[in-house]
Amino acid sequence: MIDLRSDTCSQPTAAMREAMASAVVGDDVYGDDPTVKALEREVAELLGKEDAVYMVTGTMTNQVAIRAHTEPGDAVLFDQNAHVYILEGGAPAAFSGVLPRLLPGLRGVFTPADVVDALGVPHRFFPTTIPAPVKLLCLENTHNIGGGKVWPIEQLAGVCDAARSKGLALHLDGARLWHATAATGISEREYAKHFDTVSVCFSKALGAPVGSALAGPRDFIDRARRFKQQIGGGFRQAGIIAAGALYALRNHRARLQEDHEHALMLARGIASLPGIALDVASVETNIVRFGVTSLHAGEFVEQLHSRGLYVLPSGADGVRAIPYLNISRQQIQQAIEIIASVIESQPVIMRGVGAHTARASGSGY
């Protein structure tokens, strides 16, 4: 089975397993696991922040960040298709009690004017106690539902400046920030400097088995550790899994361009097939999203699965595929052939052409 459902399906390498097996460990809840502490130091330094805290998942780092930035009843600005809003189980409402205010992003990218418009124009005749106060802007780079879209750095800086001028705190969901850096050559630190806090993931692009980190000011990270513990995120001998993340951080970032090349190879290989709607130019990193115009996406991916290819449906007519650490060029070629074989077995009923932006439903991690 060629599994392109998500880069979370990556498997640890032999060298990573060796690093994990030999890790020096302690009790992280008591703050004395040396491998966890080393990982947190390196992440903070890499992102240009004072401190970082290691957690189980990107959902946890994002949601702890929201909770630590806000109080219940506050409002938070999200892109309309943000992972933190669409794909994290309703946690902003359930855990932080915040009100989402949605921005009209295009593939996850919005403008400074969108931020300003969402905040409205205050007037002394209108009581400030009536609307929920907007305290935080969350931005995602690269953008999952946007097909791995990379934020243009000038636009990102403009949006952050606009939000900060209005008194908002800024959080970056950087689960695939590593891919943005690989695609542009712009350092993670350069992206991160525009934000108060940044979350990064080790179990997607970098291929570690477990974990993400939240970085930011030291006082903020101290507050975040409280909420990590509150929702059951306390580790014990976490150095075993932190060693995998640390190995990945040090050794797997340099190879990410290979994933981008495989994604582009896949896109080029299927874009001209009848019944496929895909703009190759939309493939900027390792995520390939395309439309299926000949049958329902759910049935399409079932047929692919029966022939040895695992991908995710996205709404009624969208499909997502993601190459990653363990996927070879040969497997990408085989995936192209399997997709072609399913397409060739179907009558083509064209329901749409051109670029495809997947619907949020079922878009995956």
TrEMBL record:
Cofactor(s) this protein cannot do without: pyridoxal 5'-phosphate
Location of N6-(pyridoxal phosphate)lysine modifications: K204
Subunit and partners: Homotetramer.
GO CC annotation: cytosol
InterPro entries referenced in this protein's UniProt entry, alphabetically: ArAA_b-elim_lyase/Thr_aldolase, Low_specificity_L-TA-like, PyrdxlP-dep_Trfase, PyrdxlP-dep_Trfase_major, PyrdxlP-dep_Trfase_small
UniProt keyword list: Aminotransferase, Lyase, Pyridoxal phosphate, Transferase
Coiled-coil region list: none
UniProt similarity note: Belongs to the threonine aldolase family.
Gene3D superfamilies per the UniProt record, alphabetical: Aspartate Aminotransferase, domain 1, Type I PLP-dependent aspartate aminotransferase-like (Major domain)
Domain Aromatic amino acid beta-eliminating lyase/threonine aldolase: 3-289
NCBIfam families in the record: GntG_guanitoxin
Example GO biological process: L-threonine catabolic process
Protein name listed in UniProt: Aminotransferase class I/II-fold pyridoxal phosphate-dependent enzyme
GO molecular function term, any single one: transaminase activity
